[in-house]
């Protein structure tokens, strides 16, 4: 029997793959892409590293160096004139987009630029300070405390000068004139700029795992990647997003996010609230994870879509897959049978814990990756 798996996108179904015993051997060039399953065992180091996609940072440029006030003394002229050098400029604080960075976990709350060196006698200028460069993920936005967008780093290597360093002060040699032959004044270095930014990621992952608490999202992330989110038999085990990476044999990567559980009324800030619906907004595509151990599992899908639509219109219609988890449990078969009668959407029944039907899910994730690569290539072609 031929089975077509579909992804729903903008109220239209897109056929991604047709499975049958006959056509599994016939693969096009785009279908030869394989998912790599690492043979290396997972680390036993149990400290969890949370994914951070929001930071508030105070940045200030370095202070400029003070100018020197000195006079030259020669063996034949004890008053040879002013020779105070200028101070060096303070260092900037710069944020730079880097594709190797995926989280804002390393961003500190305060950054101060390095100060410039003071000036010296004999017209020696102080050394300007080096700039402080902080790498951030591509797609990082910077907003003011009033919510106004200041900058958006969308391309590799793009930089944003968040706070400029102060200029170095002038030495007394600068103030030499026909009227003043022995100036006793020099400038102090200027203070650097100071700003406060709200730093956010526009996109945290290619795929977001969406579901009720204890639906098996963290177990699923563990099954398809080397991520180690906490797994326990109680709701709201996941309190912050975790990111896993699915690797492909063309060195491509698909980032998958385990989003904390959503409950009815989440758009009204119930449960973990609106802050976690914000994480879903930053995922390019979605995987709805349903719990087959609960009667009428299709109601979970209706509630999840309702909450997303109430938070932002059109969010639930992004490219998505529907996955029914815990098919290995005794009551799952009956619930899944009823679900197929009550919904027209194609649903994949899996067991993240036992590994049942995981290859079918990995195939669909591969199709999402191909879709993502196609969009990126079209974007580069348009440029």
From TrEMBL:
The UniProt keywords, alphabetically, are: GTP-binding, Nucleotide-binding, Ribosome biogenesis
Any Pfam family from its record, for instance, is MMR_HSR1
Q: Which residues form the signal peptide?
A: none
Q: Which GO terms describe its biological process?
A: ribosome biogenesis
Superkingdom, taxonomy of origin: Eukaryota
Gene3D superfamilies, per database record: GTP1/OBG domain (2.70.210.12), P-loop containing nucleotide triphosphate hydrolases (3.40.50.300)
Query: Which one of the record's GO molecular function terms can you name?
Result: magnesium ion binding
GO CC annotations on file: mitochondrion
Can you give the residue ranges of the Obg domain? 49-204
The record, for InterPro entries, names:
G_OBG, GTP-bd, GTP-bd_Obg/CgtA, GTP1_OBG_dom, GTP1_OBG_dom_sf, OBG_GTPase, P-loop_NTPase, Small_GTP-bd
Can you give the residue ranges of the OBG-type G domain?
Answer: 205-370
Query: Into which family does the record put it?
Result: Belongs to the TRAFAC class OBG-HflX-like GTPase superfamily. OBG GTPase family.
The name under which this protein is listed is OBG-type G domain-containing protein
Give the source species: Strigamia maritima (European centipede)
